[in-house]
Predict the structure.
Amino acid sequence: MALPTTPHSPGRLVVVQPLKRKRCAGCLRGPLSLLVLEEGAPRCLDCADLGHLVFLPRGDTALTRRSREESTLSAVVVRFNRRRSRYERQGVLVEEAALARAEARCLADAEARRRRRARDARRRAGEDERFAAAFTAEILRLFPGCPAERARAIAAHASVRGSGRVGRSAAGRALTEGAVISAVVAAVRHVDTAYDQLLMAGVPRFEARRRITPAVESVLRGWQGAGEDAG
């Protein structure tokens, strides 16, 4: 296995994780877990004046980038992949204090992101609560005989964020009469009729809907008529 012949390039030092047992050409220590090539000869990190650096494995891109930004001296660590016949990056060597500063920056960012997610979650919860209340009010306007608790349940179900239900459609968000009625009809169909049992018995969907239409219309008339009676 040939070691890199040009381990140094402008602005970058390269350190090798050798696959074979190597000794330092300077102090003769070995076997070396990490080495630097100087004029083709392996040197340990101490002899290469890199012994004070600490190893940061690859994987966290932000931490690696910031560690190198914070570190006056750094090196890329590579290892030869026999199957691919190439050297591959394993991580970096950076100053310990630089790594600590980079970790602090990343933690600060993570905390900021956590606070932002919490704020966004509270904002969305407030928006959803207000929308569900408006949806409930519209149900009760169209169907004044609908029990308030039932109207709230229908609105909550229809307006679940990300559900794809009618309450989250453009028409639903606009509280159009058609969207609100569709949500009520769907709720009545599943709760107040034998629709689900018919589907489980193998009845085709459109035939099941045809069979339960009178029951749905009866419930809706009752909820609408209660308002007329009160008037």
Notes: The radius of gyration is 34 Å.
